[in-house]
Amino acid sequence: MKKNALLFFALFIALFAMAQEKPNNQKLPSVNIKTLDGETFNTRNISNDGKPILLSFWALWCKPCKKELDNYNDLYEEWQDETGVKIYAVSIDDARSTAKVMPFVNGKDWEMEILLDPNGDFKRALNVNMIPHTFLIDGNGKVVYQHTSYYEGLEYEIYELVKKIAAGEDISGH
Amino acid sequence: MKKSFIFFASVLFFALSANAQLSGLVNKSQVHGSFEADLMYYQPDEAMGITDSLINGRNFAFNGFARITYSLGNFSAGLRYEAYLPPIAGFDPRMEGNGFPYLWASYATEKFSFTVGSFYEQFGNGLTLRSYEEWTLGYDNAINGVKVQYEPVRGFILKGVYGVQRFFWMKYANNNRGIVKGADMELNLNDLFVSMSNSKVRLTLGGSAVSKYQIDNNPVYKLPRNVGNVAGRFNLGIGKFNFTSEYAYKINDPSAINNYIYKPGESFLFTASYSRRGLGVFAMFKRTDNFSFKSDRSEKENALDINFLPPIIEPHTYMLASMYPYATQPNGEIGFQLQVDYKIPKKTKLGGRYGWDIHINYSQINDIAREQLNDSTPLNQRGTLGYTSQFLKFGDQIFNRDLTIEVDKKFTKKFKGYFKYIYQEYDIATLQGHPGEPEIKAHIGIVDMTYKFTSKKALRWEAQGLFTKEDNGSWAAALLEYTISPHWFFTLSDQWNYGNEETADRLHYYTGAFGYTHKTTRLSLSYGRQREGVVCVGGVCRQVPASSGFYMTITSNF
């Protein structure tokens, strides 16, 4: 067992070294999750016709997540008009509360796309440790920015980056 | 050793040659990972009863993990390292140790996927099978084995799993725990039939069967070596209405949890919801009867669960609101929940400029009604069928009741508030194993206000009160938090048990903390007192002892 672990580790270090040679160009992994209607949804179908995408992980039990999405929602119309950005909010609520997500989201009148990741498969595939965790994805489907945690006002910081992505600027320095 | 060297060399050679020759392919490969380290330093605190001899030289505790994932086209593989040296107080002491508990490789196309090694999976609502991990609980019941998923036509998904579950650091050998196998099928009729693809009616049907095998070495009883658990479910949407349900049945499964009774188990869930813009209504009914399902029948703690029993609760996160959290009772519970979310629209007379958000929850969970098998057999007698129970009858004992009313209001562009009232009844004797203690009846009030100085700087304050005559009496709490987006936070908080009958126990549980976040790297440091309590995620709980000291956590991913 220990030996296997060491071998695996060696393999990954070798591969990691190779991965370091190229710029970070993470694309979204392909994982089957669910839509609010309970239909299977493959995450490779997250798209926005070459315009920026904001992807945020949240849950009903996460107060800062709900604040963050409330604030995005207030600005969403304006953001869409200016940049065409599309927001996906992925709920990692588990089996106890997936059925509560739809009435909650509609009750809040949130306009963004909602996806369900009840067993954390997408969360793990993207190495999300804690929520809220927000990703920005450029027109080529590459993850160009990530942020964890939410403090009041983050939405303005995020939107500055969204505008740059929409204008085709490279934001890898941020 | 020689063998592994050859293997290692060949792997390296392969990697290097792939790098040189197939650089196109390798450029598509990706390596990502994440890690977290939680470090605790304990100090004595006489008022809290924490003495030097209790700490016994173990001032430091450390929980950490690192995860690496590699992917190339349809292939991916990964590992996770964990260390608990020793585990932080309140985590299962059997976690102490370090190593690689989680290794996996998988090949996945759009229709087919195959995984070997450790994996997580859930069938339906989890009544038959759910393997998952929850870092904050120190919970991990990953299955180590083989998983296959196949979608022969769109809308028809088949899954199969076969393996053994993680049990802290103990390797599987010689039947030291059970073997789990299971299959699941799901039909989505709207995907399956073109004629239904645009229908207002959306229907998904599913079914699963899971079996565990464990040898019978009990000297007294003859125990089933194979225990089957089968379930059927649906998810039906009609316009703005949505209904989901699942029923599961398990054959007799005498275990340490159910006191070795031979009664078959059953579990039933039903939810209904209606929602439109600005209004969401949700109702749920649930009954669980003798439904603990573990891959070792002698395990009594939070480990080796094959299934998951979703609780009917309002998940509370505020300091005092989470004082009495509900833990799922696998031996039996029956309850319901009603929730309403309503938005008074903005720019109306009542809603004002920004509108109001209103959230109401009522939930109640009772024990199931149990009757003796006959006059001479006491309830739940070991080695018998235990009891009989009527399906829809509520038992007299109330485990938990919760009425929550929350109002969220944005007053101006810079100023907003959350207001919450909660009434709770909580059977602490059953739920926290304190026999003889009276049921707690508590009123809780919370005010949470945020003021934004600039677009990046904000001050948030909370005032909370919990009023009860039972347990430790009433509490007051306050919190101040200053944040500078996107990097900094500073908080000060205090919980004061002013209502404690013992004057000497009217303690202040103060904490100061600050943290820095840069992208996905977050570092936080806190100092203060942690009150004794229970941390729960999804109805699974762990006890946290009182402690005092420094706590540091760092997390990142790449």
Task: Please explain how this structure is put together.
The complex is a heterodimer of chains A (174) and B (558). Chain A has helices at 2-19, 63-83, 98-108, 121-125, 154-166; strands at 32-35, 40-42, 53-58, 86-91, 113-116, 133-137, 143-148. Chain A is of the alpha/beta class and 174 residues long. Chain A has one domain: Glutaredoxin (3-Layer(aba) Sandwich). Chain A has a seven-stranded mixed β-sheet. In chain A, helix 2 (63-83) packs parallel to helix 5. The two termini of chain B are 32 Å apart. The model of chain B has no long low-confidence stretch (mean pLDDT 91). Chains A and B meet through helix 1, helix 3, helix 4, strand 7 and helix 5 of A and helix 1, strand 1, strand 2, strand 3 and strand 4 of B.
Short description:
By secondary structure, chain A is an alpha/beta fold. Chain A has five helices and seven strands; from the N terminus they run H-E-E-E-H-E-H-E-H-E-E-H.
- CATH homologous superfamily classification of chain A: Glutaredoxin
CATH topology-level name of chain A: Glutaredoxin
- H/E series of chain A: HEEEHEHEHEEH
**Shape, per Cα inertia axes of chain B:** globular
Structural class of chain B: mainly beta
Gap from first CA to last CA of chain A: 41 Å
> Helix share of residues of chain A?
25-40%
In round numbers, the mean pLDDT of chain B is 91
Q: From the alpha-carbon coordinates, what is the Rg of chain B to the nearest angstrom?
A: 26 Å
Count of DSSP H/I helices of chain B: 5
Largest sheet report of chain B = 24 strands, antiparallel, barrel
